[in-house]
Amino acid sequence: MAENKKYHLTETGIAYEQARVEAAKKNPALFSELYDKYFEPIFRFIFQRLDDKEQAFDSTQQVFLIALNNLSKYENRGLPFSAWLFRIAKNELNELFKKEKANRTVNIDTVKIHDMMEEVQETKIDAYHDKIVKIMAEELEEDDLQLIEMRFFENRSFREIGEILDITENNAKVKTYRVLDKLRKVI
Amino acid sequence: MKRKITINRPGISSEEIAKRKNFDSVLKHHSGAGKPLFKKPLFLSSVLVAVLAIVTTVLVLTKNHQPAFQQSEIPTHKDTTALAEFNNKENHIPFINPPLKGLDIDYTIYKVIAENGAALQFKTGSKLVVPKNAFEDGNGKPLKGEVELRYREFHDAADFFVSGIPMTYDSAGVKYQFESAGMMEMQGYQHGKKVSIAKDKAIAVELVSTYKGTEYNLYALDTLHNNWSCLGKDKVTEKSGNKDITEVNSKPLNRQQEKMADSVSKFVSKATVEKEKKISELINSTKVPIKPKQSQHAKYTFDIAVEPKEFPELAIYKGVLFEIGAENKSFNPALYDVTWDDANLKEGTKKGENYLLTLKKGSNKYEFIVYPVFEGKNFETAKTEYDYLLKEYNNQLEIRKQKEKQIEDAYNAMIAFGQKMAKEQQKKEKEREANQFKLMDTQEKVSRLFAINKFGVYNSDCPKNYPQGAMCTATLINNKKATLQCYNVYLVDKEKNGIFTYYKNPVTQFSYNPASKNMIWTVEDGVLFWFKPEQFKDLKSGEMMTSLKMTRVEQKFANVDDFKTYFNF
Question: Is this model's pTM higher than 0.80 or not?
Fold first, then answer.
């Protein structure tokens, strides 16, 4: 499966970003570079889980506002800065769903469902298509759905999933395959 | 939680997303600027505890109370506006941006007949093989006739810097710095218009390099996406002789030579104009007098008052009359008896000899060619006056001729001096070129072989991480301790053949190898500043924040070689 390689950063890349964060802590106007870089990934992350495009744009702005307001608390733990932004985005979405200000939406790409079913070595994909959609809509736990969404619909690496969910890369992998195993059993 | 499912929702483009970016709004609502820490609940409760604990002290503290954060860390509106302007300007900076005005790597120009192709050799020893019919215009139409190839090479950090060609490579979001084995640019023109390399054709390049390694890839500069595109590996061979190469154009012209030719031409043209102006002034100051003629009584004459300023050649004589010329066939003698309302004189068909007389009566208007004449005593006086003036004129003419000769001599001396200077400049230019490649000649060379099917910039490069060893977070300041407003900060590590770009002051973090000879360049408003190699000794790695005092470079560089000499390349 083709992963989104744009996410990966070398140590130098992370150090470079950290320098930008430190600069923005001193002068918030310098946060613009990080805003420009991550606006699209954060928007896509949010919009994948929402139905309303305008609401997704508003929430994206909110994520960056929260990040900027809390920048002084940000500590470099050797992770890309985006991992922190994705976590803020995830929290922001949870708040929206909790307060019923937005509908939790699962945007499914049928091609990606094929990728997923190949992973579970299921060949009768078309026959189970509707069933899978129903499971995603009603039965999967939110944490499990997040894993499937990030891995298959957003093409994220296990490393990135781990960084966003604050778990290890290996743990992200194990958990994802457990969900796939669960899916295979159900269908 | 009930979830909504959407299947194959239409995608949203990056352009649409980008349009919705609004950082100003985020900055505007940023609480740091509008909500000081002392208004936050945690701070207030702390103050309350303090109040209860030490009442007396609190009275003093309250009087001298300051917010718990450093005010200077929060930008004022003015600062933010200035910074926003600085950031906005950056959007208009071209992708290839030579940082120092008037200083760039010169192109060498080759003229190639498209249908014949050519094998060319550059001064470094690099070879270019252009196949027959290798060019087409913007519509894909094959080109014939002379095509101008503009070619230049870049071999070290100084070349990379002055050219303004970015040496940063973005590989899937990761930034690398290029360490180069050599870079070249080739552009094609016909009649001043850009041309392309024809489909299915390629120009073979043997780029001379002192870097033998095979770890280098070939990259093409993609000016559309502002990044480098990896084209794969180039091929490295030992430098071959040039027996198989016939240089088509024996006199390639570089930009420096073009500039020189242009300035010599301008110099000659200016000197010529000045010379002609001076001679013209001399001629105007010495005019030959009009020889007075005696009136022929058989012809009609008019007595017209002459305006001395308008006709100085006539004003010197007394009693001048205007005789109707023989060319006025239709002159009616009855007109001679008319009392005219107005009479006007203009220059005639023969300058200094005849005049155009206009006579008006009511709505009637008559024009005649008239000649100045004198009668009786007036003629004798005019003749005497003329003889005197003619003598004066001849004297003046002699003086004028001498002055003209002096002007001619001065002009010729000036031209000779200009030509001598141009020759000396040419000699210096040749020496400069020879020196430019002297270093390369002393090193073992290889050829890096590749073929290009588009004009542009090509780089035999190896993406490298930033230098390691020490890290510094710094603000670059000038000698007045003002922060430099500059976009890129360039670290030059003499051990590496590249330039490491850090972005951007104020507050730039950079890594460097303390064991190397390093220097930093940056440019503010076209002015070059540098951090000298010896200053690196005073840097303490890992220091939270330091100020680097940059030295303004006052030297004016006539060419890239001057630049390299100054920075000891």
Answer: no
In a domain, A163, yes or no: yes
Domain for residue A166, yes or no? yes
For residue B193, the cross-strand partners are B190
Is residue A94 domain-shared with residue A133, that is, in the same domain? no
Closest Cα of chain A to B140: distance in Å? 36
How far away is chain B from the Cα of A12, in angstroms, using its nearest Cα?
A: 7
Name the residue facing B27 among A22, A29, A138 (closest C-beta). Answer: A29
Asked whether residue A47 falls in the same domain as residue A122, the answer is no
Q: What is the pLDDT of residues B215-266, one digit of tens each?
A: 788 899 988 878 888 888 777 777 654 444 434 433 455 556 666 667 777 7
Tokens of A33: 């570079």
Cβ distance of A19 and B507 shorter than 8 Å: yes
Query: Averaged over B173-200, what is the pLDDT?
Result: 87
Rounded Cα distance between B120 and B113, Å, is 12
Query: Last residue of some domain: A40, A73, A98?
Result: A98
Are the Cβ atoms of B5 and A44 closer than 8 angstroms? no
Q: In which domain, by residue range, is A33 found?
A: 8-98
d(CA B456, CA B96): 12
- Taking CA–CA distances from A40, the nearest residue in chain B reads B17
What's the pLDDT at A54?
93
Give how many domains chain A has, as a whole number.
2
Say which CATH class B108-239+445-457 falls into.
mainly beta
> Is residue B308 classed exposed, middle or buried when 0-12, 13-18 and 19+ CB atoms within 10 A define those classes?
exposed
Tell me the percentage of chain B whose pLDDT exceeds 70: 80
Q: Please indicate, yes or no, if residue A1 is contained in any of the structural domains.
A: no
Which chain A residues have a beta carbon less than 8 Å from that of B91? Answer: none
- Please, which residues have CB within 8 angstroms of residue B316's CB and are 6 or more apart in sequence? B289, B385, B389
- Min Cα separation A172/chain B (Å): 23
The domain locations on chain B are: 22-74, 108-239+445-457, 301-373, 467-566
User: Which among A17, A30, A73 is the top mutation candidate for probing chain B, defined by the most B β-carbons within 10 Å of its own β-carbon?
Assistant: A30
A2 located within any domain: no
Query: What residues of A are in contact with residue B546 (Cβ under 8 Å)?
Result: none
Contact B84 A29 (CB under 8 A): yes
Contact B3 A57 (CB under 8 A): no
Last residue of a domain, one of A64, A98, A132: A98
The better pLDDT of the pair B347, B464 is held by B347
Tokens standing for residue B313: 């050649």
Closest Cα of chain B to A31: distance in Å?
A: 9
- Please write the tens of the pLDDT for every residue from B478-508: 888 888 888 888 999 988 888 888 776 655 5
Report yes or no: A92 and A19 within 8 Å, Cβ to Cβ. Answer: no
Comparing CA positions, the residue from B505, B480, B22, B503 lying closest to residue A27 is B505
pLDDT of residue B58: 32
CATH of B467-566, one of 3.30.310, 2.60.40, 1.20.1630, 3.30.70: 2.60.40
Across the interface, whether the CB atoms of A22 and B473 are under 8 A apart is answered yes
For residues B382 and B384, what is the distance between their CA atoms, to the nearest angstrom? 5
What does the pLDDT profile of chain A (187 residues) look like in tens digits?
544 444 556 666 677 777 788 888 888 888 998 999 999 999 999 999 998 999 999 999 999 999 998 888 887 777 788 889 999 999 999 889 888 788 899 888 877 777 777 776 655 656 677 777 888 888 888 889 999 999 988 888 888 898 888 888 888 999 998 888 888 887 7
- β-pairing, A105-108 vs B4-7, is parallel
Residue B67 pLDDT exceeds 80: no
- Where in B39-145 does DSSP place strands (E)? 108-113, 118-121, 127-130, 135-136
